[in-house]
Amino acid sequence: MNRDILIWGAGAIGGTVGAYLCRAGLDVTFVDIDAQHVAAIRDRKKGLSISGPIDNFTVHADSFLPEELRGQWNRIFLCVKAHHTQQACEELLPYLAPDGFVVSLQNGLCERTIAEIAGRERTIGAFINFGADWIEAGAIMYGNRAAVVVGELKGEDTMRLRQLLADLKLFEPRAEATSNIWAFLWGKLAYGSLLFAQALGQDGIADCLERPELLPLWRKMVAEVLAVAEAEGVAPSGFNGFMPDAFAPAKGTVEASKKSVEKMAAFNRPNAKTHSGIWRDLAVRKRKTEVDAFIGQVVAIGKIHQIQCPVLENLVEMIHEIENGRRIQSNANLTELWRKNAN
């Protein structure tokens, strides 16, 4: 008999969502490559603890390293970093029931990779924007609520989508389904470019966004993402203060983009998670970021359409320099990024 939900990647995103579903009584199993984290989750004396301003609770659940897994699951929630998607998707396939599906709780356009490996009919898209940080083995800080949206890749209204939405509402009551998940995924790519830029410096998200001298940089950088999205035939959706049209090359104005920046800053300022996950990857966890699978993918798609993205290309280069120890995180990096692209 198949089990129900397999959380592949029990870090900040997968751990938080999985803990809520587990607490609600759903059949949830966790998989992670961190042996200490896996051991903590299945330890009846410790478990997986969610803490922070939103909630505080602990769950105990079955948890395994990938090589320990046996059986099949009806639904696999893929929650690894975007650049690990292909490897993780290839590894999880033996554990996915023939009529099951994979839902991507990730950043970027990971649904494309999942669909190529698992099959388009076994892939569901998701957009997430809530804030959480992995603190240590068995401990996650859930910092703030935010948009959660799910959708079939072709926009159909299906029973499995309705069930997935109902289950995700156990985590985020305002979760919604959409007939155009690509609009939200491209919206996150545009908003995410701001978060990658924030990771160049030391300021938190709200303080960085509100630096007035950087507004022209925000407008030019987001406009590059939107131009590529338009070439792909996608009109990105807004969320949590981010208003794509305010940055659109043909429609956006300085005042409109300034208003959107103010709203994004207001959304982020009260959150316990003050810095982006990208910043945390560089400053705390000292590991590679998702930049190639996120911003780099936009640049690559832009080249297919003969759209140049100089700001995004410079942003990728500077993130790589920090990853490789050839640049330190400094607020001056953002000034430099704008100076390179001001003309």
From TrEMBL:
From the UniProt record, give one GO term of the biological process aspect: pantothenate biosynthetic process
Q: What range(s) does the Ketopantoate reductase N-terminal domain occupy? A: 5-154
User: Per its UniProt record, what InterPro entries does this chain match?
Assistant: 6-PGluconate_DH-like_C_sf, 6PGD_dom2, ApbA, Ketopantoate_reductase, KPA_reductase, KPR_N, NAD(P)-bd_dom_sf
> Gene3D superfamilies per the record?
N-(1-d-carboxylethyl)-l-norvaline Dehydrogenase, domain 2, NAD(P)-binding Rossmann-like Domain
**UniProt-listed Enzyme Commission number(s):** 1.1.1.169
Any Pfam family matching the protein: ApbA
Gene Ontology cellular component?
A: cytoplasm
- Matching SUPFAM superfamilies, A to Z? 6-phosphogluconate dehydrogenase C-terminal domain-like, NAD(P)-binding Rossmann-fold domains
Alphabetized UniProt keyword annotations = NADP, Oxidoreductase, Pantothenate biosynthesis
The yes or no answer to whether the keyword DNA-binding is present is no
| Class of enzymatic activity (EC top level) | oxidoreductase
Keyword Oxidoreductase in record: yes
GO-annotated molecular function = 2-dehydropantoate 2-reductase activity; NADP binding
Which reaction does this enzyme catalyse, per its entry?
Answer: (R)-pantoate + NADP(+) = 2-dehydropantoate + NADPH + H(+)
Task: List the pathway annotation.
Answer: Cofactor biosynthesis; (R)-pantothenate biosynthesis; (R)-pantoate from 3-methyl-2-oxobutanoate: step 2/2
Q: Which family does it belong to?
A: Belongs to the ketopantoate reductase family.
The UniProt function text for this chain reads: Catalyzes the NADPH-dependent reduction of ketopantoate into pantoic acid.
Query: Could you tell me what this protein is called?
Result: 2-dehydropantoate 2-reductase
Q: Which organism is it from?
A: Verminephrobacter eiseniae (strain EF01-2)
